Amino acid sequence: MAAGPNLLETDPELVAPAEPLTHEDIQRSHDRMRVVQARHGRRRLALFWLLAGPGVLAMLGENDGPSMLSYAASGATYGIGFFLPFIVLTFAGAAVVQEMAMRVGAVTHRGYGELVFQRFGRFWGWLSAGDLVVTNLVTLITELIAIRIGAGFFGVPPVIAVAAGVGLVAISIAGGRYWRWERLALSLAGLNLLFLVAAILARPDPAALSRAFVTWTPLPGGAIQTFLLLLASNIGATVTPWMIFFQQSAVVDKGMTPHDIPAGRLDTVLGAVLAALAGCGALIVAAVLFNHHVDPAQLQGGTGFADALNRFAGYPVAALFAIGLVEAGALALLTISASTAYAVGEAVSGAHSFNRSLREAPLFYALNIGVAALAAAIVLIPGAPLLSIALNANLLAIVLMPAALAFLIMLANDREIMGSRVNHPALNVAAVVVAVVVALAGSAYAVVSFISTITGASK
Amino acid sequence: MKEPLSAEHVRHVFEGEPDEDLVEALEPDQIVHAKDRRLPRRQLSGRAQTGLWALRLFVFTTSALVIYTFVASLTQPS
């Protein structure tokens, strides 16, 4: 796609500021200088290493505790079959969405929440930020539950597991540098592939894997309600509002520019591939339980999955699954806390960058650690309805998801801010298909959950 | 006339960072003060405005369903 001017490049009010550089600019310029040098030296691997991060973190961050349990529930309920290629398909859809977020961030140098406020007004801006904060808080509770479950398999007391999670967030934000935060999160993200190692150790039938990927069979049987619930959970486990907020803000904080869009695309696709591999790994591992006719309803809560895997697949597989759950929860703690802080910072026009010091951006850092600490406090309340929260966490995201996708598509097609880097028509078709499928699946999930609640039926 | 440098900027120049390189590594519209300038509100077509009203309706309807379901689930014994 040919580059062309946009409002940011042609409006004298919006370019070439006379003000001096800030601390944030200087920190970012150091990172950018390394990118410029790698690009001029034609060191492609080094360039990708410098520019990778937001895409991989958004994708693997969404492979969080509840998502991995959702994939495992699909495997334990239906075995190896329809849901295996379906996971790959959902990540392809996520890549379409996240590529737009990356591109809009690289071209406009503004976060998603910021652009919604400025281009569509305060109603949509506050609705997006407000719903995201509530949804993220509930999701963080589920991440800490996942950490508790995973650590509980090794006998770690809940208080220590939860405190360690919050401590990790505190360590990650110390340092006042985006690069440092990103690299710490990336090193944690690599452990998500433990689910793939566990899947290999579980020795799945290669013929069954090939059949599933080629023919999408066997199709799920049994109750249609269970199938729809898992279908919606799997979609909700892949395309969520916080990913859009996070990746666009991270791209801006990293300082990516339109020159970096090809590397940003590669970063997003790499993230989708790795996340799909790990997600499929979780499903394949749990399919062992399907083969042994374990009732999936008995696996919810506590260390159900890991204990059952210990019995039927052996300790190494169960231990890898448990460590994977801890990692999934821990990485999501970092990325979802960050997305909350970015979104609120953008909503109130406050400083919102890891390249700022604590003194320069107190609200940003307070929100980062505060939202994780609040979730931890809720998790540790004796008798708190944690299972209900965990099972219904995706519900809250349904309110925002269709609007988030609609605004992202509109922003990615906004010639005033994107110039000629607007969506290609084919990408628009793919993006609209993803938005419609996600909206329909979310609505069906909301209606079925509501009817189940008022009729007293079990979900 | 050249603008005065911030204390932070001066410190980096003093430490040996070439002033021009620092500036040139960033795009002009990427600098914090440029990013702080608000973009104008987008002018929406009639079709887009109708779509946004439909979206508002969806948001209010699903909010009611979702909030009721979520609160009810919290009060049920798990």
Number of helices of chain B: 4
Strand coverage percent of chain B: under 5%
Q: Mean pLDDT of chain A, rounded to whole units?
A: 90
- Largest beta-sheet details of chain B: none
Question: What is the structural class of chain A?
Answer: mainly alpha
**Rg on CA atoms of chain A, Å:** 21 Å
Shape of chain B: elongated
Radius of gyration of chain B: 25 Å
Write down the secondary-structure element order of chain A: HHHHHHHHHHHHHHHHHHHHH
Q: What is the helical fraction of chain B, as a range of percent?
A: 55-70%
Parts with pLDDT < 50 across at least 5 consecutive residues of chain B: none
Q: What value does the average pLDDT of chain B take? A: 78
Features:
heterodimer; A: 459 residues; mainly alpha; 21 helices; 0% strand; globular; B: 78 residues
What does this structure look like?
The longest helix of chain A has 33 residues, at 315-347. Chain A is built from 21 helices and no strands. In chain A, helix 4 packs across helix 17 (315-347) and helix 13 (224-236) packs across helix 21 (425-455). Chain A is an all-alpha fold and 459 residues long. Chain B is 62% helix and 0% strand. Chain B is mainly alpha-helical and 78 residues long. Chain B contains four helices and no strands. The mean pLDDT of chain B is 78.
SSE layout and pairings?
The complex is a heterodimer of chains A (459) and B (78).
Chain A: H1 7-10, H2 23-40, H3 44-51, H4 54-62, H5 65-78, H6 83-108, H7 112-120, H8 122-153, H9 158-173, H10 178-189, H11 194-201, H12 206-215, H13 224-236, H14 241-254, H15 261-291, H16 304-312, H17 315-347, H18 362-379, H19 386-412, H20 415-418, H21 425-455
Chain B: H1 7-14, H2 19-24, H3 32-35, H4 46-75
Short synopsis of the structure:
Chain A is mainly α and 459 residues long.
